[in-house]
């Protein structure tokens, strides 16, 4: 099943790459080597906790080695990605590291994505295999996996289906992923894993929700992602004694590596994998495992602070740092956290394409509550430009452009997206409007792109415009962000009905769901109107609609 047809992985080349190597920002290391560095020196130290399963650093390294060998035996090869759509669990971590070692990058896909998005991801990545749960949250992932496999017969054979929770009758056409990721019975002997990846090979692929299309695939290369993993633990105060709780999906870059799961392991700490970010479940894990660090989006952080004051709350005194990011929090959403949860707040701002910003753990309140932090690396380059592409005056608002040692140079197989998102000299246009605070930290003021940020979940509005317009009773549709007290923004869909037809929210949601759209993207408000406002050039005036949605 090897699908070794070459893919063009966008790389940073030339003078910048040479400089990063010369200055030691990039090292000839793979990320699995960085993450498993403590296995040899402290093999008995706890590494992973998931429900009743516990793995030490030594066991984790052995499981990764064994999984890499088993994957190689299945024909997974350097250069051919594997789509990994798994919830938080041991298999997600072991498989991610094993695939990155092979240079067959896992394409980390949220379990919430459905046929609409997965069709596109499979077409772009042409994976050798799909890794998925048989069922999760009442959705039949295996049925979708089989449909994708049958619908995409590659020249080198069908995709393999690697499945957790499979039944005996599935054995005919699936591979048991839990067995594939299990530590070996005896002592692990290295070897037989095939050709390992080099430092310039892809380690993982993250997904980004663009403005117009379906998810874009972001290849993160070993030497560049390694820079991020080596530097993020210190910023968050994560060392060998840290116990990091992942309650949000570890398929997202923020939870995976900021420092998150991979950064904590690389520092020799312990990762607790949770399945729910609901305060009741998460608080129990914090008490049981003595959790010191975790990561939340603003809406959840606010919920946790509220829930912590209820009687009978478990003991949360082990918690030291709560990282808040993914969307800009209102100061009121985070100011109560130090008192309610007894820990420090660290604001984090960044993107799957690279750049990460953090407030420092000893920053004054004004910076912690009022900014989204400073860039991680002194080698991160930042431009804040006005509409004409000129630098704004000090403290002015403009679009943030960035390049640096861990920001990518492009997407996989999407030259049109590359041309609009990257400048010719390698800067990534973030689409975020920022200003620089007197402390040097960035403040995110808005976006230039047509994306709704629902408490950290990014929803490309143009995708909804097109899909909703396919509804037989819809003449025209436009989705915009409407303000929401908890999520920051939700999707408000403006629709013009066809003559004599009526529409309601449930009807439109059911239609979009039937088109295979992920549930978190469904509109939560519907405004039925006689016509949409247009700009002179025939484009829907989304700014006017956003103002209207905010005024209601
Ligand atoms: P993603 O690639 O899914 O991580 O999304 C990255 C985008 O999320 C950024 O370009 C911002 O628009 C938004 N974002 C992430 N963190 C923050 C934050 N702390 N404040 C404001 N926006 C944020």
From TrEMBL:
GO biological process, one term: fatty acid metabolic process
SUPFAM superfamilies listed in its UniProt record: Acetyl-CoA synthetase-like (SSF56801)
Residues annotated as domain AMP-binding enzyme C-terminal: 468-539
Single GO term (MF): medium-chain fatty acid-CoA ligase activity
Pfam family, one: AMP-binding
Organism superkingdom: Bacteria
Segment forming the signal sequence: none
Alphabetically ordered keywords of this record: ATP-binding, Ligase, Nucleotide-binding
Keyword Transferase: no
Family label: Belongs to the ATP-dependent AMP-binding enzyme family.
Official protein name in the record: 2,3-dihydroxybenzoate--AMP ligase
